[in-house]
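Subgroup meeting minutes
Present: P.N., E.W., G.H.
Scribe: E.W.

1. P.N. recapped why we're keeping a running log of single-chain structure predictions: easier to compare across weeks, and new members can see raw inputs and outputs side by side.
2. G.H. added today's entry (281 aa).
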Amino acid sequence: MVRLRSLEPAGVEIHAKLEWFNPGGSVKDRAALRMVEEAVPTLRGRTLLDSTSGNTGIAYAWIGAALHIPVALVMPGNVSEARRRIARHFGARIIFSDALEQSDGAIRLARKLVEDEPDKWFYIDQYSNEANPRAHELGTAREIWEQTEGRVTHAVIGIGTGGTIMGTGRGLKARNGAVKVIAVEPAEALHGLEGLKHMPSSIIPRIYKESELDRKLSIATDLGWDMAERLIRDEGLLAGHSAGAAAAGAQQIALELAGRGERGVVVTLFPDRADRYISPP
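Output recorded in log:
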């Protein structure tokens, strides 16, 4: 975890958890490992299948390689070339869905594949698998609590499957019910913040419980991209666009606190690095 001093107003700290230091390079390693470990006893030789915008797929791919489990990934056709290449290097098979349908199209195609050939696929389904938020409730939340020495007042986290914010929020609130859990989502249905979901226009993941949130922030694509560039320039962090959106949300909360003369410790989470989105020349 690092402190983002260039974004801080007076009296409020902003910290970011750099999830790209996980083995597969993103926050999704946590949930994927937990889901696969819990699924192993029931795989029965089937190929592990899920829909993914990229990072969870990479996590499944490296875990599958390590555990000798075949993996197939349904990805939107506009997923970055970098993510495709990494997943393939780990031996995963990639099945592309319509890019215009974004992550929801990948979900629908994965469900159809399982419906057509149920004996071939083990559909791990990150969007409804309770092991997803459980990984963060037991791990991420504990780490944030320990790394801030229990001082965290606000957790500002992007929504993808909902697993990270649901699990982290539950774990933090179990330790201190006064901690505010604030979600970040794209402001637009068609957006450029890869990995994040615009909930009003999306298939709502079963694991996502909006009633558990204290607040939700809408961040425009341009703001997320601009903040990612600022993090590179001012903090030396090669942050991805979803990280930029999360940082923009964290700064918004910090500025509101400072404007009211309140102190606080705002923690956000950077899912991955910008090189996940850079295609080779």
